[in-house]
Recover the amino acids of this structure.
């Protein structure tokens, strides 16, 4: 027995040795990347609680006054309210529009389906800046520029296709025979949708909704192009504060950035309870 | 090449070896032991089937031999040379995967040539050997297709061709027929048998289908929950299984839990609720102990008169099978027995049944597991 | 006689409905309507409107805005500036993703945690990343301090990484690499593990397994990943302003378009720039997708 155990030990050792150089390099790269990301976030967080930090490894002293200053100076209460109103409205509307569309796309094969698919894939592919500028121009012409409605409408453009593409695999995996069975049991369309499809789709809708929430909360370009002073979201006012030079201290801006990061991380933690990390960037299955 | 059975005209020759010795190989996942120490010696040219229900450790054993899974303990020796320390690509075994694992981006020809290419075999030699194997599996006209364009049976043959073109000393097959429909499975079984014979391959074949195993293998290894239940030739296992578990796998569909009344030199009288008959003892059974008695459906006969009846049962379900009837009947104790009879039986008929004592195998009672496993082969087959 | 008339009158109507249903057209398609209308109104219409507007500049005739863009070396140069950022960034992101996700294709403890950590920079968004880069990679930031500590640069002579090309490139890598990694990782896990095992039993070592089996199957996915990372990098905007040199080395095309439309209020010019941007991007994607057609793009599930 001892000999066998020894042999097994020797084998493990050899295996470990063989894997070493490649693995080390890969892990070193990952660690290097993560250390830098940590540094990027850490600098902001540390600066937001610092008094002054012109040089050296750490600020000269610590304070929480940056937060209260930032909160007052940038009117963050109002900004946060607007942000959540916009985000939730976009989530609700895009689910309302996107889920039925994804159902039809998953279940039916019809002439022109490819064109409809293309219509839903283009807003994801074309960069927001490229269609945001014409969109902003058009909103300006119809007097919606800078309005709450305009921002919500603009954010629907990437969100609806995103819901469609997140939901389609969820719907495809529901056996169509379930619906046929329900119909054979005498259920009308409304009951089929309400009692069979909707409950089965709930996890998918939850996932899609949360993903849209995270994306809209962080969506900069579209909101930036279409928002006015009263319809700015947190990320846009953060950008404006950071780029309008001079007047504010860097610490206040960083405090605001930390508030943004904090809200984002809370959303992220919630999101990751329901979805796979990969889903945040793309469909889980292609 | 110590081969004498093959004709000299053969273009392909498996590299022969004398024996592959598995010594106490085992595999554990944390606290769960998937494969208990397995000892087995495979002789060159043998066809060995590893048989057992799903989750019994047979695929684990196969992957360990292939080198795809590290061993927890034990060693593998090929003609005295230790090979378990080699990675899979250095062992030189061929393997046919359950879902075939054909490279979807390579044509049939390039799939088959893959292993030769890895070994840097010359172009001309590769060409010759691939063509020979394509002939062998009769896929010549499909050589340029992608695997996705082939039917299941054709993909199966590509997988076999890819494994044997390297002339490996040992071919491992992991339930290669389980993805095919029933008719195709019979054809492919014959095909595998033919290739094995023509080619003189040593084959280790994993399956859960006892019919497949019995018809293909020279020797069978029956596994139960990671342990070897019995090793033997098909006829040994078929005629004298060593336990109720193996018996259940070998087509003894009736496993009755009874009590041994008397035991006398290989013969026993077993009794139960309204049951009494004589059987053959194949392992140590003491008088008075609980036993399991295994009887094949075709060995349960309808008695001429009530006097020599072993027990009575009421026919419940009768299926017409052409030359005979398949009857499910309930004994008085409520256990269900299966029998085959040429006599016309109607549901509800009271049947007096007898058993030839030589055909009723008496085993010491096992744990409950065997009873559950008894249902498996019937479903799988 | 009357029965026959009824059949004749009814037949065409019923048949049409069934004929349509046969082709998949029935009332279920009404569910598409809100989505299609929303996309048409909010995406197609503005786009076409912008395209139309770009042909109606204040001066210079129909193609005035376009000739103004290509006539001015500063604005024309934005295309090359943008490509000069987007192509290296996408190549680096995809190039790093391949070995890393290949190493991590199996299951190991803490994998989900690692994936989560990698997701963080994506969700933080470009604005926050830019803010952090300004401080971290700045002349007195931790990065330069570390380099000085290690003696790689002299004290008092920090290397310039922000307000320059490099800062923007870093921000594209920080937000783009996790994206590329997660995509590559999901493509890689779509390749059935039995294929590599099969290659191993056929005598292929790890490099050969990667070179002849995994990589060819991964390549179409890599090209798609490249396209998506490229789209992200090509439309770089906030970080080019915040950590870059928006009037010089990182004056990318999105800044040019934004300034024309919403700072100079020259809408036709801004729309023309946006159209040029879209066209340039579609050109690159079209090229890559054209290359992708030459490779096997079918199922990688192992069954062929």
């Amino acid at each position: 027995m001892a000999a066998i155990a020894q042999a097994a030990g020797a084998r493990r050792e050899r295996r470990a040795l063989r894997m070493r150089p490649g693995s080390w390099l890969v892990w070193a790269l990952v660690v290097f990347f993560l250390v830098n990301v940590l540094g990027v976030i850490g600098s902001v967080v540390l600066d937001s609680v610092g008094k002054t930090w012109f040089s050296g490894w750490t600020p000269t002293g610590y304070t929480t006054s940056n937060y209260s200053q930032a909160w007052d100076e940038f009117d963050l209460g109002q900004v946060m309210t607007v942000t959540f109103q916009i985000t939730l409205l976009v989530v609700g509307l895009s689910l309302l529009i996107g889920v039925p569309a994804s159902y039809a796309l998953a279940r039916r094969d019809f002439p022109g389906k490819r064109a409809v698919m293309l219509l839903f894939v283009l807003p994801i592919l074309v960069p927001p800046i490229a269609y945001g500028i014409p969109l902003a121009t058009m909103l300006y012409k119809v007097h919606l520029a800078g309005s709450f409605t305009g921002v919500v409408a603009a954010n629907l453009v990437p969100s609806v296709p995103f819901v469609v593409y997140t939901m389609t695999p969820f719907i495809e995996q529901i056996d169509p025979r379930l619906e046929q069975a329900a119909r054979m049991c005498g259920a009308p369309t409304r009951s089929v949708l309400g009692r069979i499809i909707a409950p089965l789709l709930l996890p998918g809708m939850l996932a899609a909704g949360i993903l849209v929430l995270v994306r809209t909360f962080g969506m900069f370009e579209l909101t930036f192009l279409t928002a006015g002073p009263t319809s700015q979201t947190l990320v846009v006012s953060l950008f404006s504060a950071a780029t309008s030079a001079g007047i504010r201290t860097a610490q206040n801006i960083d405090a605001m950035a930390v508030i943004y990061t904090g809200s984002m991380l809370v959303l992220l933690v919630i999101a990751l309870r329901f979805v796979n990390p990969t889903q945040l960037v793309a469909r889980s299955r292609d | 090449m110590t081969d004498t059975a093959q004709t000299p005209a053969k273009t392909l020759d498996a590299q022969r070896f004398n024996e592959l010795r598995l010594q106490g190989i085992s595999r554990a996942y944390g606290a769960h032991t998937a494969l208990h120490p397995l000892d087995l010696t495979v002789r060159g040219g043998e066809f060995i089937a590893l048989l057992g229900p799903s989750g019994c450790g047979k695929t684990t054993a196969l992957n360990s031999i292939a080198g795809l899974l590290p061993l927890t303990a034990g060693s593998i020796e090929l003609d005295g040379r230790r090979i378990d320390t080699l990675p899979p690509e250095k062992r030189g075994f061929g393997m046919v995967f359950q879902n075939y694992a054909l490279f979807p981006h390579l044509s049939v020809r390039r799939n088959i040539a893959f292993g030769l290419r890895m070994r840097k075999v010359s172009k001309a030699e590769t060409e010759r050997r691939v063509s020979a194997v394509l002939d062998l599996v009769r896929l010549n006209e499909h050589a340029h297709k992608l695997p996705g364009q082939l039917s299941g049976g054709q993909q199966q043959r590509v997988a076999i061709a890819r494994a044997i073109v390297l002339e490996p000393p040992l071919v491992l097959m992991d339930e290669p027929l389980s993805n095919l429909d029933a008719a195709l499975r019979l054809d492919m079984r014959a095909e595998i048998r033919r290739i094995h014979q023509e080619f003189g391959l040593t084959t280790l074949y994993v399956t859960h289908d006892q019919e497949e195993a019995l018809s293909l293998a020279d020797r069978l290894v029956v596994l139960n929950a990671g342990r070897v239940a019995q090793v033997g030739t098909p006829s040994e296992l078929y005629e004298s299984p060593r336990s109720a578990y193996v018996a259940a796998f070998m087509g003894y569909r009736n496993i009755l839990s009874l009590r041994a009344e008397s035991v006398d030199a290989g013969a026993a009288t077993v009794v139960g609720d309204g049951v009494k008959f004589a059987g053959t003892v194949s392992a140590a059974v003491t008088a008075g102990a609980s036993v399991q008695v295994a009887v094949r459906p075709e060995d349960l006969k309808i008695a001429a008169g009530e006097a020599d009846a072993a027990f009575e049962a009421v026919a419940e379900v009768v299926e017409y099978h052409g030359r005979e009837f398949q009857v499910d009947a309930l004994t008085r104790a409520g256990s269900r027995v299966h029998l085959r009879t040429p006599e016309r039986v109607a549901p509800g008929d009271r049947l007096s049944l007898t058993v030839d004592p030589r055909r009723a195998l008496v085993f010491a009672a096992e744990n409950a597991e065997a009873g559950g496993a008894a249902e498996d082969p019937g479903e799988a087959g | 006689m009357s029965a026959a008339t009824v059949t004749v009158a009814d037949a065409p109507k019923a048949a049409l409905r069934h004929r349509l249903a046969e082709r998949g057209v029935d009332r279920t398609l009404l569910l598409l309507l809100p989505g299609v209308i929303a996309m048409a109104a909010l995406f197609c219409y503005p786009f076409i409107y912008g395209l139309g507007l770009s042909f109606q500049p204040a001066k210079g005739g129909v193609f005035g805005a376009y000739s103004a863009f290509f006539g001015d070396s500063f604005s024309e140069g934005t295309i090359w500036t943008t490509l000069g950022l987007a192509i290296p960034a996408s190549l680096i992101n995809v190039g790093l993703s391949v070995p890393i996700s290949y190493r991590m294709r199996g299951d190991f403890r803490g994998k989900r945690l690692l994936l989560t950590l990698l997701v963080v920079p994506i969700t933080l968004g470009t604005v926050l990343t830019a803010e952090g880069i300004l401080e971290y990679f700045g002349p007195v930031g931790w990065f330069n301090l570390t380099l000085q500590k290690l003696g790689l640069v002299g004290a008092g002579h920090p290397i310039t990484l922000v307000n320059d090309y490099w800062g923007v490139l870093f921000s594209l890598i920080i937000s783009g690499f996790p994206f590329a990694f997660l995509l590559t990782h999901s493509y890689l896990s779509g390749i059935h593990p039995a294929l590599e095992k099969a290659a191993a039993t056929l005598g292929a070592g790890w490099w050969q397994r990667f070179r002849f089996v995994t990589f060819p199957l991964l390549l179409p996915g890599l090209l798609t990943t490249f396209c998506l990372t490229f789209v992200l990098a090509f439309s770089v905007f906030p970080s080019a302003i915040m950590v870059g040199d928006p009037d010089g080395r990182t004056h990318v095309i999105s800044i040019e378009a934004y300034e024309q439309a919403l700072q100079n209020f020259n809408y036709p010019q801004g729309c023309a720039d946006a159209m040029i941007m879209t066209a340039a991007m579609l050109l690159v994607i079209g090229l890559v997708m054209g290359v992708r057609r030459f490779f096997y793009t079918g199922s990688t599930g192992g069954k062929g």
About this structure: Residues 107 and 146 of chain B are 4 Å apart (CA to CA). Residues 1-11, 368-381 of chain B have pLDDT under 50 and may be disordered. Residues 182-199 of chain B form the longest helix (18 residues).
